[in-house]
Specification:
Length: about 130
């Protein structure tokens, strides 16, 4: 939590970003957590840290990841009832034209929505699987 406060104070913000709506969690905390890890991996994100109910991730460095060149970090909060991409930390890019900044926000918004959609699908699939 302290890291987020420091990053925010250092000029990181999610100005103009629309963060996807929360989605329901899986039938158990473990299934929710596994779905988050799997969705991040499948969409090319790298988990930086995972604590009880909180996950931090950054875009992978693969050339195929649309956000690979962005200095970006997301925080996902979750429990067995819901999952929310809670915050996006990204430094302001000095010298960015308004059009370039808008394009960057659009790419991030699109990638977060794809991640959210993947996560929702994996949670639904986990709940259809036989109980462990």
């Amino acid at each position: 939590m302290l890291v987020l406060v420091i990053l925010s104070a250092a000029g990181c913000a999610n100005r103009g970003l629309v963060i996807p709506e929360p989605i329901r969690g899986a039938s158990s905390f473990d299934r929710t957590e596994r779905a988050i890890k799997d969705a991040l991996r499948r969409e090319g994100w790298v988990v930086e840290g995972m604590e009880q109910g909180e996950c931090f991730a950054v875009p992978g460095d693969s050339e195929s990841h649309p956000l690979a060149n962005y200095d970006l970090r997301i925080r996902i909060i979750y429990d067995k009832d819901s999952v929310q991409i809670d915050s996006v930390d990204m430094p302001d890019v000095k010298g960015d034209s308004p059009a370039a900044a808008a394009d960057r926000r659009k790419q991030i918004r699109r990638s977060l929505q794809v991640l959210s959609n993947r996560l929702e699908y994996l949670i639904e699939s986990a709940d259809l699987a036989p109980k462990e």
